[in-house]
Specification:
Blueprint: H1 2-11, H2 14-32, H3 38-45, H4 56-79, H5 91-99, H6 103-136, H7 141-153, H8 155-158, H9 163-178, E1 180-181, E2 188-189, H10 195-198, H11 203-225, H12 246-267, H13 274-288, H14 300-324, H15 330-341, H16 349-353, H17 355-386, H18 391-410, H19 413-431, H20 437-459, H21 466-469, H22 471-499
Antiparallel strand pairs: 1-2
Helix pairs in contact: 1-17, 2-3, 2-4, 2-17, 3-4, 3-11, 3-15, 4-5, 4-6, 4-14, 4-15, 4-17, 5-6, 6-12, 6-14, 6-17, 7-20, 7-22, 9-20, 11-18, 11-19, 12-13, 12-14, 13-14, 15-20, 18-19
Length: about 500
């Protein structure tokens, strides 16, 4: 009880509340602007967390995470352009409602659905995570090795188009993680005599380069090389009443509950994301609806379901991240870096060694979702105007934030050069249809996999049978193998069925 009270005093302090509000506001802006992503927002603002004490910086990132998922629905409803992949399902009925003059009603329902889904998944996180952590405390080194491989196998889910390219990107991340001192012998690896590389390649500059500076380069190419117009569709829809009526709320409440449960469940599976949850929630809402013929023409369930499902992913994705040290999606993979910088080792021991910080995160996530609702209902017209900012004005602002963010880590220009090199490499990889999330997953999970593999072999004197003697290890290895093979075997099985 004392831990909860202490955590509440931290969250409800004026500085923490300000950080949550600022993060949520920034997240909504990032989400509502087409072309800016959740991952990009977290990567850009993560260097700011180093200047805050304790978990205040993490609270700000939680606000960004929640706000950005919701923000994508604003542009989806008003201009038929999803701000985030998760909001692609929202525009199917959101924009038709706007064309019918019901933009305010659609925005109100999407805001209420986002808050409902976020609070539902946070409560699920509070209930499930401590119990799962108790089970995970009994895991041994071979189990953690298998767990790391399972986390690495989710690369097949977060890869953009090609599984092969996703695996190559993951291997690139694993190689970056090997640079520096050997964790067992303290020998130098791939340092080339550089004192800077002895500590490994700094995580934050790489992160900013991969997700933010690469987008700057893509924006420059789009505007200056192809000479494409930066004209932004103006908001012509009249935004009236935002708060849902009691009749609307009663009608969509079962949809909120069902979609939130779907989103939380999908989010807790590593490698899934808000876009998958949104479309599944939309499909199930149509299946259970008494008026399925309205879907695609302005159904209020069609707006409510994907928003509740997508925002429920946030709490669900944090379950494997906090309890097992495995990112639930690309955004939580980036957030893991902020936990590492604050000295919080993710995994089951987090709940026993840092109970105050854990409860602070739980309460902070609840407050972030409430702040999202307050800002959504009170400032929706402001966010609609922000969407009219031309992309050509955003690019130099993002570039300056990239440089400042990279420099602020260690106050050295070497980090800035690392950020630029990472951004240039990411630009080339993105042009070749590679995804950047596997690179980050490889960098984060690489040390965990290597350390536990070598520790396991020392325990068994080099006997590899230690990995299938443990039932837990065998289960995780089997799931990892199945996850890697499923994208290959799935199409082959479907072709055989068609032939049959």
């Amino acid at each position: 009880m004392n831990d909860i009270l202490q955590a509440a005093s931290i969250v409800f302090g004026h500085e923490s509340l300000l950080m949550i509000l600022a993060g949520t506001l920034a997240g909504i802006i990032f989400g509502s602007l087409p072309g800016l992503t959740v991952n990009m927002g977290i990567a850009l603002l993560m260097p700011l967390t180093f200047s805050f004490q304790g978990v205040q910086g993490i609270l700000m990132l939680l606000g960004v995470y929640c706000g950005a998922i919701y923000g994508g629905s604003i542009s989806a409803i008003l201009i038929n352009t999803p701000g985030t992949p998760a909001s692609a399902a929202t525009l199917l009925d959101g924009y038709p409602m706007t064309k019918k003059g019901e933009a305010g009603r659609a925005l109100g329902l999407s805001t209420a659905g986002s808050v409902f889904g976020g609070l539902f998944s946070t409560l699920a996180l509070i209930i499930v995570a401590p119990q799962l952590a108790k089970v995970a405390t009994g895991l041994s080194a071979p189990d953690y090795f298998a767990l790391g491989l399972f986390g690495l196998s989710i690369i097949t889910s977060v890869s953009s188009k090609s599984i092969t390219k996703g695996l190559i990107a993951g291997c690139l991340g694993l190689f970056i993680a090997t640079v520096g001192l050997d964790p067992m012998t303290a020998g130098m690896r791939f340092t080339f005599g550089s004192w800077y590389l002895m500590g490994g390649i700094s995580f934050v500059p790489v992160l900013v380069g991969l997700f933010a500076f690469s987008q700057v380069l893509l924006g420059i190419e789009e505007h200056y090389l192809h000479r494409q117009s930066d004209a932004v569709e103006k908001i012509t829809a009249k935004i009236t009443r935002l708060l849902p009526t009691w009749a609307d709320f009663k009608r969509v409440l079962p949809t909120y509950l069902r979609s939130s449960a779907i989103g939380t469940s999908i989010g807790s599976i590593p490698g899934t994301g808000g876009d998958i949850a949104a479309f599944i929630a939309y499909t199930e809402a149509k299946r259970w609806s008494k008026h399925p013929e309205e879907f695609g023409h302005g159904s209020i369930e069609g707006v409510s379901a994907p928003e509740a499902g997508a925002n429920a992913v946030a709490g669900g994705a944090m379950v494997p991240m906090m309890t097992l040290g495995i990112p639930g999606d690309g955004a939580t993979a980036i957030m893991m870096g902020a936990f590492m910088v604050q000295g919080l080792s993710l995994g089951p021991l987090l709940f026993t060694e840092h109970p105050v910080e854990v409860n602070t995160i739980f309460i902070g996530l609840l407050v972030a979702n409430i702040a999202m609702g307050i800002l959504g209902f009170s400032s929706i017209r402001l966010f609609a105007r922000v969407m009219s900012v031309p992309r050509q004005l955003l690019v130099p602002v993002i570039f300056v934030m990239c440089v400042v963010g990279a420099y602020s880590v260690n106050h050295t220009m070497t980090d800035v050069f690392v950020m630029i090199i990472a951004g240039l490499c990411a630009y080339v990889l993105l042009k070749l249809d590679f995804s950047m999330s596997p690179v980050i997953i490889g960098i984060i999970l690489g040390p965990m996999i290597e350390a536990n593999l070598r520790r396991s072999l020392i325990m068994s004197a080099g006997d590899f049978s230690i990995f299938w003697k443990s039932p837990v290890c065998l289960v995780f290895l089997s799931i990892a193998l199945l996850t890697l093979l499923l994208p290959i075997l799935g199409p082959a099985i479907r072709r055989l069925r068609r032939k049959a």
